[in-house]
Amino acid sequence: MLELYIGKVVEVSNTLISVAINKELETPYIVINSNPVRIAGVGSFLKIERSVYEIVSEKTVLESDKKEVLNKITSNRVVLCKVIGFFESNEFKQGSGGETPNIFDNAYTVSDEELLKIYSGTSHSGSISVGKYLYRKDLNFYIDINKFFASHSLIVGNTGSGKSNTLNTIFTELFDNINTNGSYFLFIDTNGEYSKAFTDDKLNKVLDTRNAEKNSIHIPLNLLESEDWRLLLEATEKTQYPVIKSVWNSVIKNIFTKEENANIAEYLLDELKKAIIGILNSNSNTTNKLGAITSIKEDFSFMEDEYYGRIEDVFDIFDRYTVNGNKFIISGSTDYYTDYTQYIVDEVERYTTTEIKDSFTVEDMGFLLNITHLHRTYKFNINENNTSPLIGRFNSNKKDFKTIFLPYKVGEKKNVMECLFEDSHILVCDVSRAKKDIRRIMVTFLCAKLYYYSVNFKNNKFSMHLIIDEAHNYLSAQNLDKEDAIAKTCIDTFESIIKEGRKFGVFLTMATQRPSDITPTLLSQSHNYVIHKLVNPRDIEIMKNTVPFIDEMSITMLSILSPGQAIFSGTAFNRPNIVQIKFDDSKTKVESDTIKLMNKWRRKRNFDEDSLKIAKHDVQQERELADIIGIPTTIASEKLECTECGEKYICIRDNYAPYGMCLNCGVQHKLLQCTYCNEQIILDEDAIVDEPIYCEYCYNKLFRE
User: Using one digit for the tens of pLDDT, what is the confidence trace for 633-673?
Assistant: First the structure.
């Protein structure tokens, strides 16, 4: 659109002016090339000399209000405008420019080229189109690639406002129009929405702690650090972390830094012997020493690695001795005065094996933690209760750890990029099937590893883009008040990335429905903001105080934006832009439709084959909903496996289906709660319950105690 005369200045006051609109323009719209174009309406712009003004209000001039000056220019409308910038050397700059218009100066529309410079400062070259200007739907809205993607961004909005579509549109347009092979993109998919989004030229991986066979995120053990294990096990800094650090430093020294000479079997045996001898030489009484060693022996029966079964005969040494008073004596001997502790130590030291072990596993890590815990407990006379929770947490999560962390084979050298991205440069990581804490830990772990990889290899000149959907699940400041150790590590990690990442080519994009939950540092350090509808006053106030250059009109619009509409503001844009985001069915493949509750609230008591199918589907949908909302599932247990089909669909809500019925195959189970931890347990049908019932974990724990 070319410049069009639209009126004259009739009043000047500071940065505000009044412009009487040409009577020929009775409405704020004219038709150009068969398209209605908004002119001289609220939110549009006009130009006086080289200064640009935004129209903030308008009024109709009544006959009784007409003055001679208005009659001279035959106007029925007056608009109030504020200065937003000026043109200099064909470039738009913010501010007043030091000029004030005069009464009766002519006002003109701005051209399309000028409008683009006002809005975003970008030309079509080096940019992508993601929608239309809300007030000029004949014009495409463009994002400057360098300014937007080489910076940190925040996408916010209430549920249903269009965040997922916006995220998909931005990156789909990027991948469709630009060769991004020189960069890496990691999408953290919290709700399992993006497996079909963005581009077909990507890698999908799933973090699944419910079904090990479906988990496709695998990290070699040697890529972990002691800090990673501290996070995984929520270890306390002063009492539990030293155990982890001691084990990990020993593992690194004896296995991970060696090429072909590392003998894993011999190393583990040496550590076992060291622990046994340390317990024997401690100041504890002999009965306690034997109890600690017996506890280690009992743990061997739960080890799946056959290696431990083959070295178990080291404990046979103790079968030849018994405890008398505070001494070890030979079993059956009448010599009650000689303490044979040193004889046992010598035998343990002489014990050898020819066993070969070609890999270091999660189970080996747990074994080392346990024996180190016991060794330190007795050697330094530490209260066992200080460190035993560490071992308990490991045992509780061991199954999940074995699913994720691959055994390390001697001489194997892989970095985190090779493990995650393989031959791709775009990775969607679906974490919706992972336990909440494992999910938070793994998201932090993956992003931290990629960040530090980029820092160490900054001369490779690639960029790393970390896109975190539903960021409040990981970066909520509220969790810090709950003394949540995982939350602290998550937040510390991402605050480091957003503060320092830019100079290493690492850029963070966060999407959240609750901006008020995100820490102030992460909010303030973001460079660009995409804001969908917000209704919570606190969220709106946060955005008002955080987003640079956002004006009162944009703030007012936040609560009335329709789905798919968003305000773009930040360093990539000259001013706030209200945009209608593209929605293309052929490209928008985000699976985020609102759940139809009536379909989830079915009630069936006669569970035939069809009813089982419906029930199983309901459980799956409920689990997806539970992951989104963050509440426990109620229909079926996520821990109990059916003894018939092996699936985890056993009903625990008796007003939905028979209590204990497998909703996958229909088999009825007998369920009771563990007396100690209240978790459900599957019992044999003929089991007689006349005493306390314990799950396997609690039984073993209590038996050892």
Answer: 888 888 888 887 788 889 888 777 888 888 888 888 888 87
d(CA 143, CA 24): 36
DSSP state of 111: P
User: Cα torsion at 575, 472, 564, 184 (round to 10°)?
Assistant: 80
Tally of CA atoms within 13 A in the half-sphere of 178 that contains its CB: 20
Contact assessment for residue 579 and residue 142, using Cβ atoms and an 8 Å cutoff: no
Token pair listed for 389: 């929770």
Q: Are 565 and 532 in contact (CB under 8 A)?
A: yes
What sign does the CA torsion over 100, 103, 105, 109 have?
Answer: positive
Using the Cα atoms of residue 324, residue 327, residue 328 and residue 333 in order, give the sign of their dihedral.
Answer: negative
Token pair for 579: 């945009």
pTM for this predicted structure: 0.72
Specify the amino acid at residue 540: I
Evaluate whether 5-119 and 139-202+424-581 have a shared fold.
no
Q: Which two tokens stand for residue 534?
A: 């917000």
What distance in Å separates the CA atoms of residue 514 and residue 251, rounded to the nearest whole number? 42
**Euclidean distance between CA atoms 412 and 423, whole angstroms:** 19
Domain borders along the chain are 5-119, 139-202+424-581, 222-409, 597-704
Count of Cβ atoms closer than 10 Å to residue 472 Cβ? 22
DSSP-assigned beta bridge partners for residue 7: 21, 107
Letter for the amino acid at 325? Answer: G
Strand partners, 406: 220
| CATH tag, 5-119 | 2.40.30
The arrangement of secondary structure in 139-202+424-581, i.e. its CATH architecture, is: 3-Layer(aba) Sandwich (3.40)
pLDDT in tens, 466-496: 999 999 888 887 766 656 677 888 888 899 9
End-to-end CA distance of the chain: 83
